[in-house]
Structures are given as C-alpha cells and as structure tokens.
Amino acid sequence: MTEPGPPPGGRLRGTPLHDWHRANGGRMVEFAGWEMPVQYRSGIVAEHLATRRDAGLFDVSHMGRFRLRGPGSEAALRRVLTNDAATLAAGSAHYTFLANDRGGAVDDAYLYRFGADDFLLVVNASNRARGFEWIEERLEGGVRLTDESEALAMIALQGPGSERKLESVVPAGSLPEARRNRHATVRFEGGDLVVARTGYTGERVCFEIFAGAERIESLWTRLAAAGAAPVGLGARDSLRLQAGLPLYGHELGTDPEGMEIPIFANGLARFGVRRPGGGSEFVGRAALERQREALARLARGDAGASAVLPRVVAPIAVSGGRRPLRAGQKVLHGDVHAGYVTSGTSVPTGRDDAAGRPEMRPIGLVLIDSALRFREDDPARLRVLDARGNESDAAIVTGNL
Amino acid sequence: MGELRYTEDHEWVRIEDDGIAVVGITDYAQEQLGEIVFVELPEVGDEIERGAEAAVIESVKAASELFAPVSGTVAAVNDALNDEPALVNEDPAGEGWFLRIDTGGDGSLDGLMTEDEYLRYVEDLG
Lengths: 401, 126
Known about the structure:
The complex is a heterodimer of chains A (401) and B (126).
Chain A: H1 18-23, E1 27-31, E2 34-39, H2 44-53, E3 56-59, E4 64-69, H3 73-80, E5 93-99, E6 105-115, E7 118-123, H4 128-137, E8 144-147, E9 152-158, H5 162-167, E10 183-188, E11 191-196, E12 206-212, H6 216-225, E13 229-231, H7 233-242, H8 269-272, H9 285-299, E14 311-318, E15 330-333, E16 336-352, E17 358-369, H10 370-373, E18 381-385, E19 391-396
Helix pairs in contact in A: 2-7
Chain B: E1 5-6, E2 11-15, E3 20-25, H1 27-33, E4 36-40, E5 47-48, E6 53-59, E7 63-67, E8 72-77, H2 80-83, H3 87-90, E9 99-102, H4 115-125
Antiparallel strand pairs in B: 1-2, 2-3, 3-9, 4-6, 5-8, 6-7, 8-9
C-alpha cells in the first residue's frame, strides 16, 4: 500500500466514522495520512470471507472526492481524463485515469455524472492533493472545481447479500437499475444519498454510497445492524488483489526499479481509456494509443511490440507452498529475471482445512516480461524469490477469484 | 517448570527442568500480526545467538521475525506449525510454541521481563 508520511504538522486525519471504528474494535493504522482500521476483531480472513459470502461494509471516506460543476465541466474532463466524459450519461459512472504525456498514471479514478454540468470524481487518498492540482492547472473557463472529501462521506457495501441489506434501510424500489456503474439518488432519514453500483472487490453485487458527513454514521450503523460485516483496509486489499484489480503505487505509478508503468500494462486500461478515432484531444492521448496498439500486437504474439510495453501486469498463483507473496519480490523465468511481484498476500480458498479453519493460498500480481505473459505454447512457470533467498514456484493464471 | 520470561520483541521463553529453553511469541504479538499463514523454522542442530533471527512468521498482512531470547543449539522445532501455522494464533503460549533451545546450562534470563513487567510494557505501548 502506498504510505506517504502524515500530513504537515504530523496529525493524522480521521474520517467521520473514526470514533465508531475505535469504539468497535478497529485496529487503527496510518494510511496515506489517515488513521484507518486495518481490521476489526474478526480479522482480515473473516472479513474477506464475509464479503464473498454475504456483505462487507467499508469506510472509504479517506479517498478524495472532487466535484466539477458549470458549463465547462464536460470539456475540462474530456481534456484531463483518459475516458470520454461526453459518453457518460447522467446516472452512470466509469473508470478513468489521470494520465501524463508519457501514458503513465498520475492516478486512476472513477467519474460519476449527475447532470449535464455536474460530475463527481473519486481519486486515491494518496493522490488527493496532487490530483486536485493536476486538474486545477488544466482547467479553462466555466468550471467550479471543489474538494468535497470532508463534506461528503463515502462507504462501500459489497457482496451477494448487500442488496438485501441496503433495501432494508432505504425506500422500496429506490435503488439504481441493476447494472454495473448505474447510480441514483436515494432518500435516507430525511436526506439524500447517492447509491452507485460500483466497487473494488470483484463482487457482482456491489455498492458505493455517498452521504453527507453528518448522516454517514447512522447509515453505517444501520447497515451493520442489518448484518453487513465491517471490513478494514487489510481485507479491502486482499479482496481487490484476488479480483486482480490494480492499486496505485503497486500496479500503477512506478515499478520497483523506479520506471514508470505504462497504463496499458493493466488490462483494465481497455475500459478506462477511450478508443481512438474520437475527435477530442486529451492528456496522454498519443502515448496511450501507441500502448493500446502494442498490447493488441502482443496479444497476437508479435513480440516486436514489447518496446512500448516491456512488462505487463498478470495474476499469479503459487503452486504447492504456503509462503505468502509480497510486493517487491523478484520473479524469475528459468534463470532470467522476468519482473517483480507488485502486490501479494494469502487469501482464503473458500474451503476449510481439516480443523475447520479457512484454507489459505498465496497469490499475487506481477509486472512481468510481456512476451512471457502472452505466450500460448507454455504457461510460464515462474520462480519467486524473497529477500531471504527463499523460492516459491508460481504460474500465471487467468484469475484468482 | 520455570515461569515465563519475556522480551521487548514479544517472545516468551521458559526454562524447563532439563535446562532446555522453550520459545514462542506472546498473545499480544499474535494479535498484532493477525492471521498467521506461514512459519519458517530453523533446523534442529542450528546454533543460534541471543537476539538473532530464529524463525520467520508470515501473516496475511506482513512478514516478521522471531528473535532468539537465549543462545544455544536448536534441540527441537514445532513441526506442527508447518501444516497448522494458525496454532500460533490459537494457543501462542502452548500448542503454538516455536522451538526448544539447548542453552548448554547457560540459560541466563538476565534482562528479560517477568510476566508483570511484560504486561506493564505492553500496556505502555497503548
């Protein structure tokens, strides 16, 4: 996880749910200048499984939320984001990036459209200040950009049982249409919530909910009372990692050698970068179009495209051993250094062992030679080396869910 | 059986009647680490120095080490932890022991904390 130092003055920030976490067994840690629960008493594995089996409840108010309003908003977002805000309907959301001219990620983000001239952009906590400046410097006229991160709180409710739990606290029939990325305004205790069908766990039934900071604790406690399990940052990370979703600072940003990771090293780039051919110009366009083409060539087995995308991200699973994978570990193919683990942990398989405990297996994401990623003849057998020289056998897999 | 002594790194050690030191991590340590998913133990016969790394402990979150609270020769390791590392979480001062160290009669526990001292130490950590 990206962990820059605390904010100036050394004081950590707390979300509007900070006191609730402390009073309810949250083990608080520093994360990107915030004091956040890494887990509750139940532990990371139980929280991970609760999300997969029923419903997990996450405080994600530490993330950055920017509002853009005014007649110039759409044009501004079309210039500064890689996805095309013009194709986004009111009541929908999409994945997007803030790219630099080299096609590297300043951040990845989610854009929600409320109306013709009204958008909300959610960015990573660690990039909040940088992202705000990045956008502000690139604004032309007719846009009001405001940082709503304090006034507007945000929680996530994820997992197969989450819809039933959410329905129990809001008016019947008020949830957004059951399609990913739809959102709707929903009444709750005399005020409004924005409920979106988005998430970061790989769960098909998923919600992220925005509410005024003064209303969030009531919503949270009612969802918890309905049976949603509070989940800390530990399981938030293991869930996204099992789903193969990138995290800025690991799969986006710079690699362990300090080299910038091209956005298209991540498969999700296909959904977060607009297709070529549209008329509008945006930051990073030329580099991203080269990357998209290189990825298509690599997928066809044309290793000549590896100059543009030397390494790409892939999920791996360890065969045999129990030692968890960790970010920064070296990956070898034969005796050749082929890349690095960018994120690693152990996750529950969903089965129990003989003693009735959750069975665990080591998984990770790697940034690996692109030629290896796309070879079809021989699923690449990899060796992962830890800092002590221990070795685990692993292989690229289609997914770890 | 002697009473437990504790290190600032949250290991416990107990000198048995035969002079062998049994070593593990404390309940506070296992709680802080979270679910333990892998343990790497030394080989029987390894010589270890007080304060040196004697075992590796991997939880879902992170890797950490067990440091030897006494010097000597590894007399036994708890092989059950290879298949059931969760024993460390479930019973850190019993079934979840890590290793037995033959101190060669020099099982000095100087500088280690008594249980009362350790509990106060942990309390001060917050």
